[in-house]
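Figure-free illustration: sequence to structure, shown twice.
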Amino acid sequence: MSFNNLDINAIRQQFPILSRTVYGKPLVYFDNAASTQKPLCVIERERDYYLNENCNIHRGVHFLSQEATEAYENARKTLAQFVNAKDSNEIIFTRGTTESLNLLATSLGKLLVNEGDKVLVSAMEHHSNMVPWQQMIQEKHGELLVIPMDKNGVLDLNAYEELLKQQPKIVSIAHISNTLATINPIKEMIAMAHKYDIPVIIDGAQSMAHHIIDVQDLDCDFFVFSGHKMYAPMGIGGLYGKMEWLEKMPPYQFGGEMVDKVSFEKTTFNKVPFKFEAGTPNVGAALGLETAVKFIQSLDRKAVEEYEEHLLNYATDQLSNIEGLRFIGQAPKRSGLVSFIIDGIHPYDLGTIVDKMGVALRTGHHCAEPVMTFFDIPGTVRASFALYNTIEEVDIFIKAVNKAANMLR
């Protein structure tokens, strides 16, 4: 296996927080789907910006402003190359996936959605890829269509085809479910929607850190992501959009930088991408995001993908031996995480006890309450993995879950 060449201990040494203890025990951090830890190079890059380059961008002729502007725009180019965008101007910096989706619900919604129209999402969406569309479509007195899924967490593509025939104005779907780990067949789903000339948005929050993304190969119209789930700072992320759409869309917010000419009678707007980046951006975090991308690119991406799959498969196999444990989400193609419940035990109780043993998990509905309603459960316990996790940590996690379950039975 190619992942045998990965030096996981050397990788771990780049993440200072992994050496700390909690409750007197070594930290086992399995909450990566919520937010990954940051390597030292990312922390230092953001710190260096504030120490040596701190300045507002695009607005000054002096040295610091020019230097910071160049660094910020180079970060945009790095991200464009990372996802294989045609043009770096197709990358819009946002605070993350949530803001990117709200931007699209507002701007693309204003462009395309009229009174009584429809928007199509899937049954497994995070609230961020459901609530903005729901609220926008309610204002238009339209309808939110939902692609159904089965009890394994697999979308029904036949039903999807029938829903496409209803001519929704927009399709917005997750690449990977944050609750079920399902890898959706997005390339096929994009092609299906394009047969009906429907633009497709991909929520890549759970995939950017784990899989190679090629937006041109996927042919998606938009792809959104968060930096904090891919080893970058919090409060930074982005939106890729095909230039043909970005040029037609109205601005999302108004203020400085996104304007061309302003008078009390009329305002004209700046070109893409600046049209969508009103106000002072989080420059330091953008440079941290660029550094995180370079960190990911410095590794053997295929080996990392295989290693993370190995962790997931091992954890799933070991969990299957625990009495009364039921997996929530058993799609044939999964990535990054495992969700489960144990008969008669509330997820919060299990997670609280496991935490005292040094293992950080996530419990609850994971901002996907309709998914929990579908499975008729209050929530799940979710363990999510990153490239710095180890088999030894999985063994500690399994032992902790077993012990907690025995205490609570």
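We now fold a second protein in the same way, so the two outputs can be compared directly.
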Amino acid sequence: MSSTNLTARLEARISTELHVMLKRAAEIEGRTMTDFVVAAVQDAAQRTIEQAGIIRLSLADQEYFAAALLSPAKPTAALKRAFARRKNLLRVE
């Protein structure tokens, strides 16, 4: 059974100066320019995706959040009913 690699093509127009820079950087790392560019783009994409999942809070918001964690509010009647329903549905002991 033979396996085939599925690939997609990416094309981009870049300035001559950027082309020279990429070629030099690839040579320094001992890679082909294609390998260098693909690795750099993959790293940048991963960082972007990871950064999208980070929530940034002001100092005041951080303090408010920490205070809420350290001193949570008492459960309301609605929350108590919700936990009771959950316990019945899941048969949690």
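Summary for the second example: Helices lie at 16-29, 33-52, 59-70, 77-90.
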